[in-house]
């Protein structure tokens, strides 16, 4: 798609009824101002349960989003900090344990798969915050869930990107939701519905809605299940891949790693509970610049977001778009446009720092989308990424493994952007300068 945009400009007609759009003002029009309805491709992900992500009906989506939004408010998220912190503590313990094991056999460095580690962290974070208990991924190293999750996402991507196949499977009545995940979910919800005391987490907001007697605040039990499963799909791999992509970029460019470490060492850190404060991470300019730059270069939805014109309209004051046209909002192409971001191929966190010239076009930066269907988990994801990256850099030294660095260049797009090998290993040791 990028090559087509390079050749034909910000609007590319890829078939009689499908346009790809990468102009920043048009992206805003499609996603925010005109707020076009989600396209039919989203129906293809609704094999199991309808949820906030795949609902295309505006009223149904508005209701669900309104009921769930309090779980993602900044204030409520602040209350989830102890849960996230316990996951980060597990991560540190795990890495230290691996290093101790390596040291016992005479090696100061442990070989650790950072792709898997961040995935385990994201799954345990989702477990703690949305399922009421950790999956124990970091500690035990395995749980049937991540394997099935990855398989599910990859299988789903075939249907997500192939509308005809999706419709065929739907018509045939084949159930795409993995029964293991469904049963797991049913148990979790049952436990919480019958629990005596509430637990302060994301799931609690959904459970309260399931129990609510006011129809305007209600969610059916079926919806609670659909939404909770959605958090697992939407919240784990997206966040873990992004955190891992940031670590890979920092290992590729050591001076940026050192610059980040310098900043991380100045941040408020509580030695007793071994954690950074939310405020200090939120205001860490270089850390947030590294995250922004990673999301610019490696946006999880790099294939574009599908929207549909429900009536004729004029796009960007120049294109007459007939009703029924599908529009792909292609943020990746916008992120790679040199008019918006200078030297767009380069990993340059500095562009996000105050005073950098030419300033990045923040209105062309859409990693979490925008408008009524933007990412509800944005703040959660950002905080988790900040914690993971800052903690690893504060506590450990890293050495690269050439073969892994090479493998990390093979990046593919399923539903999210991922490393084809599903693995990124590095040598990790205790920090020598502490
Ligand atoms: C780096 C991490 C993440 C990125 C880059 C990301 C990005 C996105 C994007 C681009 C969308 C719009 C998708 C579309 O229109 O098709 C989206 C939607 C969504 N995301 Fe995220 N996301 C991340 C993490 C999370 C987390 C942690 C959660 C939940 C805990 C989450 C939950 C959702 C949900 C529920 C939607 C659908 C919202 C709606 O349609 O109303 N995401 N995300």
CATH class of the domain at 45-286 and 378-385 and 399-430: Mainly Alpha
Radius of gyration: 22 Å
* Content of β-strand: 5-15%
- Unreliable spans: none
- CATH superfamily (homologous) name of the domain at 45-286 and 378-385 and 399-430: Cytochrome P450
The ligands found in this model are: protoporphyrin IX containing FE
Overall geometric form: globular
The secondary structure category is alpha+beta
Fraction of residues in helix = 40-55%
CATH topology of the domain at 45-286 and 378-385 and 399-430: Cytochrome p450
Strand line-up in the sheet with most strands: 1-2-10-7-3
- Count of beta strands: 14
Main sheet record: 5 strands, mixed
Assembly status: single chain
Cofactor: heme
Protein name: Cytochrome P450
Keywords: Heme, Iron, Metal-binding, Monooxygenase, Oxidoreductase
InterPro entries: Cyt_P450 (IPR001128), Cyt_P450_CS (IPR017972), Cyt_P450_E_grp-I (IPR002401), Cyt_P450_sf (IPR036396), Cytochrome_P450_monoxygenase (IPR050121)
Describe this structure in words.
With 434 residues, the protein is an alpha+beta fold. The protein has a domain at 45-286 and 378-385 and 399-430: Cytochrome p450. It has 19 helices and 14 strands. The protein has helices at 2-8, 24-33, 58-68, 74-79, 81-104, 114-130, 137-140, 144-160, 163-172, 179-193, 202-211, 221-235, 237-252, 254-266, 278-282, 285-297, 331-335, 378-395, 402-407; strands at 11-15, 18-21, 37-38, 110-113, 269-270, 275-276, 305-308, 313-315, 319-321, 326-329, 396-400, 411-413, 417-419, 425-430. The strands form 5 sheets. Strands 1-2-10-7-3 form a 5-stranded mixed beta sheet. The chain has a 3-stranded antiparallel beta sheet with strand order 4-14-11. Strands 5-6 form a two-stranded antiparallel sheet. A hairpin with a 3-residue loop joins strand 12 and strand 13. The longest helix has 24 residues, at 81-104. The chain is globular and about 70 Å long. The termini are far apart. The model has no long low-confidence stretch (mean pLDDT 89). The structure holds protoporphyrin IX containing FE (HEM). GO terms for molecular function: heme binding; iron ion binding; monooxygenase activity; oxidoreductase activity, acting on paired donors, with incorporation or reduction of molecular oxygen. Heme binds at residue 375. This is Cytochrome P450. Pfam families: p450. Its cofactor is heme.
């Amino acid at each position: 798609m990028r090559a087509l945009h390079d050749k034909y400009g910000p609007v590319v007609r890829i078939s009689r009824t499908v346009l790809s759009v990468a102009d920043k003002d048009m992206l805003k029009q499609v996603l925010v101002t005109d707020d076009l309805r989600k396209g039919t491709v989203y129906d293809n992900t609704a094999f199991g349960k309808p949820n906030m992500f795949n609902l295309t009906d505006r009223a149904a989506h508005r209701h669900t989003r309104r009921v769930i939004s309090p779980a993602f408010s900044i204030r409520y998220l602040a209350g989830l900090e102890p849960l996230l912190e316990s996951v980060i503590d597990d991560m540190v313990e795990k890495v230290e344990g691996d290093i101790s094991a390596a040291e016992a056999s005479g090696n100061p460095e442990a070989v650790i798969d950072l792709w898997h580690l961040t995935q385990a962290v994201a799954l345990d974070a989702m477990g703690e915050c949305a399922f009421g208990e950790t999956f124990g991924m970091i500690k035990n190293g395995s749980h049937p869930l991540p394997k099935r999750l990855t398989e599910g996402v990859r299988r789903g991507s075939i249907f997500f990107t192939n509308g005809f196949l999706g419709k065929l499977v739907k018509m045939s009545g084949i159930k795409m939701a993995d029964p293991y995940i469904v049963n797991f979910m049913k148990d979790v919800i049952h436990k919480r519905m019958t629990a005596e005391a509430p637990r302060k987490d994301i799931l609690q907001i959904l459970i309260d809605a399931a129990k609510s007697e006011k129809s305007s605040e209600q969610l059916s039990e079926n919806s609670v299940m659909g939404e909770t499963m959605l958090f697992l799909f939407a919240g784990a791999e997206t966040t873990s891949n992004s955190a891992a992509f940031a670590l890979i970029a920092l290992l590729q460019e050591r001076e940026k790693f050192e610059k980040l470490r310098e900043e991380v060492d100045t941040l408020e850190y509580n030695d007793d509970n071994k954690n950074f404060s939310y405020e200090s991470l939120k205001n860490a300019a270089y850390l947030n610049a590294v995250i922004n730059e990673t999301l610019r270069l490696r946006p999880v939805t790099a294939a574009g977001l599908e929207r549909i014109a429900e009536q004729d309209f004029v796009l960007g004051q120049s294109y007459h778009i007939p009703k029924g046209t599908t529009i792909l909002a292609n943020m990746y192409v916008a992120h790679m446009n040199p008019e918006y971001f200078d030297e767009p191929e380069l990993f340059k966190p500095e562009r996000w720092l105050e005073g950098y010239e030419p300033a990045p076009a923040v209105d062309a930066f859409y990693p979490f989308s925008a408008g009524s269907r933007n990412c509800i988990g944005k703040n959660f994801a950002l905080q988790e990424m900040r914690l993971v990256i800052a903690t690893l850099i504060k506590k450990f030294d890293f050495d690269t493994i050439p073969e892994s660095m090479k493998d990390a260049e093979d990046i593919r797009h399923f539903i999210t952007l991922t490393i084809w090998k599903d693995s990124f290993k590095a040598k990790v040791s205790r920090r020598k300068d502490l």
